[in-house]
Structures are given as C-alpha cells and as structure tokens.
Write a structure and sequence with these properties.
The chain is α+β, with helices and mostly antiparallel strands. It folds into 4 domains: 167 residues, Ubiquitin-like (UB roll), CATH 3.10.20.30; 54 residues, Uridine Diphospho-n-acetylenolpyruvylglucosamine Reductase, domain 2 (2-Layer Sandwich), CATH 3.30.43.10; 114 residues, Uridine Diphospho-n-acetylenolpyruvylglucosamine Reductase, domain 3, CATH 3.30.465; 106 residues, Enolase-like, domain 1. The strands form 5 sheets. Strands 2-1-5-3-4 form a 5-stranded mixed sheet. Helix 2 packs across helix 5 and helix 15 packs antiparallel against helix 16. The chain is globular, with a radius of gyration of 23 Å. It starts with a strand and ends in a 21-residue tail after the last helix. Bound molecules: flavin-adenine dinucleotide and FE2/S2 (inorganic) cluster (FES) (2 copies).
Length: 484
C-alpha cells in the first residue's frame, strides 16, 4: 500500500500528496480544516492538540487512547481510527463530556478545552481507573491557564468508566486492514511494516533509515529543529514488539511496549518502573511512546536507562542476521551512542527478578513535578547478606554525565563488603561527588546535580529501612485534591 489508510471521525481517508513528516495536527488544521484541535506548543507539552485513537490490539480489550496530534507523523496513522473534538457531538446532541464541561464550568477562554475534552473522552471509556493517582495522571498532560484544575478534575471523576453509548459500541467494530505501508513524497520515504521479518529486511537494506517508535523524540526534532531524513521506518504496526510478560526469570519488555502499559503493570511488581513512569512525560506521551524509543536515543537525561542499568537488565537486538543479547552496561557506549549496528534495532529488554534481600528505588528530580525532563534521575539497587553486609551495589543516574544511566562506580565500590548502615552510606554518598562532573545548563547547575545525586543515595537508605522496594506515595498534583 502506498497511501495512508485511516479513519477520522468515522470518515475513511487515503492520504497522499503530503510529506510523511507532516503531523496529524497540521493535517487536521491545514488540509482538512478541522480547526477544533488546537496548536499550543507543537512539542508535546501542553495537550491542546489532544485527539484519541482506537487501540484495537489493547489487552484485555480494545480501548481509546489520548495522544498529542502534534507528535504523530501521518504514516503512523495507517490502519487506525481517530476521533477529534469535531467527532463528539451528534447534530444538536452533545457528548457527555461536553455536558460535564458545561455543568462544572470547566472552560473559560476555551483554548485548552478541545484537548481537555479528548482526554476526558478517553477516561469516559476507560474501565481501569480505580486508584487516585490515575485521575490526576489522566489529566496531567492538559495544561489550562485560566479555568483552574478543580472543575476539570470534577469532570474526570464523574465521567471515568461511564461510557456505554455508540462510542463504546465502536470499540467492537471491525478494524481497517493492517497491511504494510510504503509511502513516499518529495524525496522522503516512510516505511511502516506489519511484520517483524519485513522490518528486519528493510533495515538491512536501508541502514540509514531513522527508526520511529512513538515519535515523541523524533517529531520534536522535526517540528522544532527541522531535522529531516530521507528514509524512516516506524515499528508501530509490528505486534510482536508490544508484549510485556512476567515469568520465573523476570520481566520481559518488548521494544514497542507502551510506557503507559508498563506503568500500569509495575505498580505492585517491578515497582521502580512504575515509580519513575508516574512522573515521566505526560499521559498522552506514555500512551504512544515506547521503551525502545526511550533508550534507543541514549539520551543522558532519559529516565529509563538508569532503572534498566540498576536492575541489571539486558537488551535484545534484532536484525535479519538473528537476535543477540547484551547487558545494559555494554549497550550504552557514550554520549548518545549505543552498540546497535546499522542493520539492527531493539527487540526487547529482559529484567531479572528483584530478590528478597534487595533494596531498590527510583527517583526523579525536576523543576516541575509533571511533564518535565529530569534535572537528575537515579535508581539505587543494593543487596545485603544475612550479616547486613553489602554484596551487590548498582547506583545509576541520569543528568549527571554524558552517558545514559551512568553508574557511580566509586560509590558502589565504597559500599561493597561494608555494613549497610548510615555511616557507610554517608561515605559512599560523598564518593558520588567524585564519580561525576556534571555540566550546568538551563535545568540545573553542576553543583545542584551533584548534590541531588548524593542526596538520592542518602534518601534511598532512609526510605528503604523498612520497605525494601517502596512505591511512590500518592501526591495529588492538580491544584486541589478531591475526596477519594
Ligand atoms: C513533552 C515531552 C516530555 C518528555 N518527558 C520525558 C521524561 O519525563 N523522561 C524521559 O526520559 N523522556 C522524556 N521525553 C522524551 C521521550 O518522549 C521519551 O524518551 C520517549 O520514551 C521516547 O520514546 P518514543 O517511542 O516516542 O521514541 P521515538 O521518538 O520514536 O525514538 C526515540 C529515539 O530512539 C530511536 N529508536 C526508536 N525505536 C527504536 C528501536 N526499537 N531500536 C533502536 N532505536 C530506536 C529513534 O530512532 C530515536 O533516535 C519527553 C518528550 C516530550 C516531547
Ligand atoms: S500542541 Fe502542545 S502538546 Fe501538541
Ligand atoms: S480554559 Fe483557558 S486555557 Fe483552559
């Protein structure tokens, strides 16, 4: 197929004649003149551009997912159904989301409102929102400058899981065919394979192809830095890469596993992932961004690499030559440099079980609690023997060095063989200052980064005195906490 086949508000489109690097937001506004969807930041930060798509492969059943249309490249729409704000009302009959916004006075200037409405729309058909954190998380990617968040939070509390109308029925309707897309326009080629074999073959014959998972990084480079490439390959329609499983050997995360799915799965098991993901980007980004994309760019301020590094994970790389496995410590080679060969891509991550005698917790410090890149993130992992002597120590950080998930080797060495007590932790914490020479930038000064990294280890000691693998405490992040 060489046209992008998709549905928007129940109308089928076969898109051609536009660049593959055009975002859904600009296609909606500039080509279809559906201007209800708003542009704010054009880089995933404000939520004004939120739309929903039907995730037909979601488990246990199909569901809607709210995403930022400014970050979705058109070929990624192939084979999927989308709804925008224009699709909600039927003639004069308002959708329950619109009624709730009116009832609770949840809109003033209205600029954010179409995006807010689409996040509320998704919540209306979600049946898994039972915990307090899920309500704030659902709306955390929608900024509103004038209404105040209380009325918006009242809407989501009222609507969540109530949808039993025609949109609920549409979740059971048949899908569009998911065939392979090979789209080209004006010298830009965008390949969207539907099988793993096709993906491997294409990558081995197009070694410069830029891989696209959720495009939350790739699109920002296109939108804000005009960084374009001749060839792209998106893994969005390869089902094998989406799997997340837990078995006797541990946790296995497919490269295309949605961050949102991993967050939900890791609230009680492999909790350090659940903890870090709560304050990772926004709900909309986590619905489309993937674990492979999070580590594939080897960003030194990425939150995911420190967790994988501290938990001693390994990465499986795939190509038409086969699959090979590498420990994370051999995968990250330098500043934004990984061991991926030009015909390979990330297939999955394997994370060993966290044993009973292990303490482990992940941390993130950023200027803003929600929707912010870390100043420093870190994951600490320590095992002790029956005499409380440290046998294993892995302390991995983001934001303090050029490499993603940098290990504090001097501090680790200071802990090994010593009793796990406050005095020895203090000695190790001071070593972290020797481990890293961070830079100062607009997010944080070098002094701040170093001090925070040292304090993370001190805090880790205190926090894990009783509960060895603590979950993050629920802290409401909207302006007001509603009674639960
Ligand atoms: C508003 C906003 C907030 C953000 N907040 C955070 C945050 O809090 N913490 C954080 O860590 N990051 C954050 N990010 C960065 C980014 O969204 C995440 O790192 C995200 O996980 C990237 O995943 P993706 O699937 O969208 O990657 P993509 O954009 O698709 O890809 C990212 C990189 O990985 C490569 N890649 C993709 N898939 C593979 C693969 N299978 N094998 C090899 N290479 C691959 C791509 O070529 C590209 O270089 C934020 C981004 C935005 C826009
Ligand atoms: S326009 Fe701000 S998130 Fe898309
Ligand atoms: S109503 Fe004005 S920005 Fe939200």
């Amino acid at each position: 197929m060489n046209k992008i086949r998709c549905m928007i508000n129940d109308v089928q489109y076969e898109i051609e004649g536009v660049p593959p690097t055009m975002s859904l937001l600009h296609y909606l506004r500039d080509v279809l003149h559906l201007t209800g969807t708003k542009e704010g930041c054009n880089e995933g930060d404000c939520g004004a551009c939120t739309v929903v798509f039907k995730d037909a492969a979601a488990k246990p059943e199909p569901r809607y997912r709210a995403i930022n249309s400014c970050l979705l490249l058109l070929p990624m729409m192939h084979g999927k159904k989308f709804y925008t704000i224009e699709g909600l009302a039927k003639g004069d009959k308002r959708h329950p989301v619109q009624d709730a916004i009116l009832k609770h006075y949840a809109s003033q200037c209205g600029y954010c409102t179409p995006g807010v409405a689409m996040s509320l729309f998704e919540a209306t058909y979600r049946h898994d929102m039972t915990k307090p954190w899920q309500f704030t998380e659902q709306m955390a990617g929608n900024l509103c400058r004038c209404t105040g968040y209380r009325p918006i939070m009242e809407c989501v509390r009222e609507l969540a899981g109530t949808g039993k109308d025609e949109f609920a029925d549409k979740l059971r309707e048949p899908e569009l065919p998911l065939d392979t897309l090979d789209y080209e326009y004006d010298g830009e080629r965008f390949y969207v394979p539907s099988t793993l074999d096709e993906a491997c073959d294409f990558k081995s014959s197009h070694r410069d192809a830029v891989l696209v998972s959720g495009a939350s990084d790739v699109s920002v480079l296109i939108n804000k830095h005009a960084r374009k490439n001749d060839v792209y390959m998106s893994l969005i329609n390869v089902p094998e890469l989406r799997e997340i499983t837990i078995d006797d050997s541990g946790l296995h995360i497919g490269a295309m596993a949605r961050l949102a799915n991993l967050e939900n799965m890791c609230q009680d098991k492999f909790v350090p992932f659940g903890r870090i993901l709560r304050y990772f980007a926004s709900h909309q980004i986590k619905q489309i961004a993937c674990v492979g994309g999070s580590v594939g760019g080897a960003s030194p301020v990425g939150d995911f690499a420190p967790v994988l590094m501290a938990l001693n994970a390994s990465v499986r790389l795939i190509s038409s030559r086969g699959i090979r496995s590498l420990p994370m410590s051999q995968f990250i080679l330098g500043y934004r440099k990984t061991a991926i060969e030009s015909d390979e891509f990330i297939y999955a991550f394997d994370v060993p079980n966290i044993p009973e005698n292990a303490r482990c917790a992940s941390y993130k410090v950023s200027k803003r609690l929600e929707l912010d890149i870390s100043s420093v993130s870190g994951t600490c992992y320590v095992e002790t023997d029956e005499n409380n002597i440290v046998t294993v120590a892995r302390l991995a950080f983001g934001g303090v060095a050029a490499v993603a998930g940098a290990r504090a080797k001097l501090a680790e060495a200071a802990l090994i063989g010593k009793e796990w007590n406050e005095e020895n932790v203090e000695i190790a914490a001071q070593k972290i200052a020797d481990d890293f020479s961070p830079i100062s930038d607009f997010r944080a000064s070098a002094w701040y980064r170093q001090t925070v990294a040292c304090n993370m280890l001190r805090g880790f000691y205190q926090e894990t005195l009783e509960n060895h693998v603590p979950a993050r405490m629920y802290r409401p992040t909207a302006t007001i906490q509603l009674e639960q």
